[in-house]
Amino acid sequence: MKAVRSVFNWSYYLFLLPATLGVCAWQGWAWWSWVQSPPALDRSSNSAGEKAVQIQIPQGTGAQQIGRDLEQAGLIRSSYAWRLWTYWMKFNDKEGGYKAGTYRLSATQSLPAIADKIWTGEVTQVSFTIPEGWSLQQMATYFDSLGYFKAQDFLAAARQIPREQFPWLPQNLPFLEGFLYPDTYQLPSDRMSPQQVIQQMLKRFEQVALPVYQQGQKQTQLSLLQWVTLGSIVEKEAVVPTERSRIAGVFANRLRKGMKLETDPTVEYGLGIRQTMNQPLTFAQVKTPSPYNTYLNPGLPPTPIASPGVASLKAALYPEKTDDLFFVARYDGTHVFSKTLAAHQAAQTAIRQRVDAQKKPSL
Hints:
Elements: H1 2-36, E1 53-57, H2 63-72, H3 79-92, E2 101-105, H4 111-120, E3 125-129, H5 136-145, H6 151-157, E4 184-188, H7 194-208, H8 210-216, H9 224-237, H10 244-257, H11 264-271, H12 283-286, H13 310-317, E5 326-329, E6 335-338, H14 341-359
Antiparallel strand pairs: 1-2, 3-4, 5-6
């Protein structure tokens, strides 16, 4: 009888042990499946929902801290599960690791998907657009307003001339005004530094603008610096695209005849101001000495005054053949062109009278 009871007990335990292990294994697998799943699947979870969020991972942040940050942001269910998954990834890629940077993540992603994204360094791409005709100061203010970096840091970096990497840059260039090509750029968020931005903009100039000059160099007496400088003035003066080459033709004529360029944007640049229809340049401002004042100084200013686009650069290289020596803005984007000083002064008077009439209140 005791032998039968002993056999029964052993049979009971032999059945109970696998059953218990099976239940534990099932519960463990269920838990593991749950912690890997996207938190957004759980309607009651206080997660980030389906809206993507940006997570910044500073350099040197450990895996456990990353897991805690992700759990706190509602992007994963368990920092402990994150640690276990990290062990698995490290086992499969002993040389790998989580990468610093800014990531765009969502609670609709699974834990393995988020881990793989950070492990491989799929950082967020930052997009920014620099319009044609912007100066270094405008760019610096723009980057500062977006929180990428401080304006003074960008301006300081623009005074460093990377001639080793870009040997075509003119000698004795004090700063990179005019050579940072205006365009739309995309950079990884972890590379958003003044130096990296400047490098990409110089590369774009090298790809887009420099070949234009190299192809037409034999047809002009302008050096690379003079070409970009003239192109920047054309960019600032021209509002209507069809007038670019004609404006460039006026400047080409004045340079050839030894006349001063007498162009307002150079005065504005030298004084750090911007005139408007209601607040035009004053006589005192036009007479203020500055290396950039083309009313006082002959020839081109010492550097570009803005970043010209390729259309203005082409206009400076291939100006329209014209007898015009003057032009004046109508304040609607177009200009009145004149061949003589008398005709130019008459156009100025007519425009001034029209502007004054618009200022008067109607009865």
